Amino acid sequence: MKHLRPVNKKAQRIDDLVTAAGEDVVALQNQNPAQRPHIPMGCTLAFSPGWEVDSAGGTAGLCQPVERDIYDCYVTCFWPAQVPDHLNNYPDWASKCASATKDWRHLDLVFP
Amino acid sequence: MTAAPAQTYRLGEFHEFSGGGRRFLYLPAGAIFEMDSGVAAVIGKLSQGAATQEELIAGLADGAELLGELCAARIVVTQDAVREPLETPPADFPLQSLVMNLTNQCNLSCQYCYEFGEDKVATPEGKPKFMDIDTAKASVDFLLAQSPGRRSVHITFFGGETLMNFPLLKQVVNYATEQAAAQGRAIDFSLTTNATLLTPAIIEFLSENRIGVTVSMDGPPDLHDQLRVFANGQGSYATIAPRVRALIAGHRTRPITARVTLTNGVTDVVRIFRHLKNDLGFHEVGFAPVTTSPDRLYAIGERGMDGVLEKFHVLAEEYLEYALRGEMHGFSNVSDTIAELYQGVNKSHPCGAGLGLLGVGPSGDIAPCHRFVDSDIHSLGNIKTGGVDREKQADFLNRGHINSKYDCHTCWARPLCAGGCHHEAFVRYGDTGHPNLHYCDWIRDWTDTCLRIYGTVSALNPDFLQYFAERKAL
Question: Among A24, A54, A69, A108, which one carries the catalytic annotation?
């Protein structure tokens, strides 16, 4: 904090909390990519339509490719599905898969 | 369409003080912040009455950020903010310290003694006078079993006169050290004594085993001998002075502390301090007014207490001079408070009694602390028959919790005081959970004095505070 200088341990803990909370807001507002990844957690922060079938009963006409679904479990809205988790253990799992529709074959198995 | 009324702000709870040319805030959470002129400006505006955000930050550089910080620290709150009650410690709070009253017998007859005097709560009739080895071992086992997760625990030996049962003390030290080592944990010891029974052999044992020693002593002979007397009325100073000197010379592993009880006529704090610190050589000297009902002859009246506070201030000034030079002064009443201010404690209970600390009497009866040992109405169970009665313990802790002391809820000194000693409250008001209203002004004055010392030291010699970085309880 700028205007209050902590001079004991409890004050330091309050300062740390306030600073951490402030950084969270800044990360969400930041237009430029932050130095460290900041992943908004929770479904309400992610708009991701289309997990079903299109009007013809297939997947070709969905508003985003069906392969994209993989990321809904892996990154945007972590759900304990059978995909590796991006947050803690497999941050590079999809690093060779820039476009899900074209590169999905590069997604490999993981062996925990 | 109607617009929502603008949110207004008011001042939160804090105590303002200054030191070393700077201004500080002490918060009910126990936090201490140094403030800048922007903070002072907002506090100044809000002292006139509630205000909206626009009114508050008008004319201030980065006012919005400033207000954000003040709200985060709850120095400024919205109009509808309510006081949040303190959390209750978990029911399975692990034990840290056990006070073992090795005997309830004493070779002195100090008139003000809370164990034998007119205000005593103990009911020792028909109970053992000396603790036996089985009870002592059961107590050690109890401490180790009830302190899961603690890397180190503590035993304090107490009495009666502790050294009247020195053979048991030795056995307990050996047994407890073995048992703790077998679990890969540390245990340390301290004792309180009137020093009449110290011998070179005892001093050697205490030093070898790093046992901390507190001597109950009231000052130079004319003051000490007023109330600290043998059964025949003879003063005990002449007996203990050479033994205390031998103790301080021979015990080199832990600081030796004197603990002074202030009574009517024994209030010359400065003279007592000089004698105990300089003439006898104690490392630390701490003072506390006698616990008594107000009508006893030795009770210190209100005017007497004002005099005590004046003398406390003289020593506090001296403490500050020492601290600015980076030296320890030895006035425990300041250093104990500074240690708590450094951590920023915010107590739910005035002390660890019944929580991380318990007392055990010679019979194995468990009490909230040593002061309640042998008192039937305060007993929390027995070491040999099932340990702590959790219902009684919960009742004791609920009474003593700051949330149930309404008088304290508007006091800025409550993070440290939390209503004051349970035992003192029982003697004065007949209820361990009653706030000690007879010394509120005293506590606030003393806390403010220590805060100003803290502020000055943090501004001018912050390295000194590192002495207090080590937390007592781990």
Answer: A69
Q: Is residue B457 part of a domain?
A: no
Nearest CB to B73; choose among A2, A4, A7: A4
Contacts of B277 (CB under 8 A, 6+ apart): B285, B330
Same domain, B284 and B180: yes
Secondary element (H or E) of residue B166: helix B166-182
Residue A27 maps to a domain: yes
| Paired tokens of A62 | 């969905």
What does the alpha-carbon distance between residue B138 and residue B140 come to, in Å, rounded to a whole number? 6
Chain B contact present for A6, CB below 8 A:
yes
pLDDT tens column, A66-88: 777 777 777 665 555 677 877 77
Within-domain flag for B65:
yes
Does the residue A70 lie in any domain? Answer: yes
Closest partner CB to B69 (pick from A8, A9, A18): A18
CB contact under 8 A, A18 and B65: no
Domain containing A99 equals 9-104
Q: A72 catalytic, yes or no?
A: no
Cα–Cα distance for residue pair B262/B296, rounded to 1 Å: 13
Q: Which residues contact B295 (CB under 8 A, 6 or more apart)?
A: none
Q: Provide the pLDDT confidence category of residue B62 given band limits of 50, 70 and 90.
A: confident
Closest chain B residue to the Cα of A15, Cα to Cα = B73
* Segments forming the whole domain that contains residue B212: 97-372
Q: Is residue A79 part of a domain?
A: yes
Q: What is the pTM of this model?
A: 0.82
Long-range contacts (CB closer than 8 Å, 24 or more residues apart) made by B219-224: B219/B260, B219/B266, B219/B268, B219/B271, B219/B272, B219/B275, B219/B276, B220/B271, B220/B272, B220/B275, B220/B279, B223/B265, B223/B266, B223/B268, B223/B271, B223/B272
Q: CA-CA distance, B49 to B13, in Å (whole number)?
A: 14
Total CB pairs under 8 A between chain A and B? 76
Helix axes B302-324, B332-343, angle to 10 degrees: 70
Interface contact A4-B39, CB threshold 8 A? yes
Instruction: State pLDDT tens for residues A38-73.
Output: 555 555 555 555 566 777 888 777 777 777 777 777
CB-based contacts of B433, cutoff 8 Å, min separation 6: B398, B399, B400, B401, B404, B405, B419, B422, B425
Tell which of B26, B32, B340, B461 to mutate to test the A interface (max A CBs under 10 Å): B32
- How many angstroms separate the CA atoms of B163 and B106, rounded? 9
- B36–A18 C-beta distance less than 8 A: no
User: How many structural domains compose chain A?
Assistant: 1
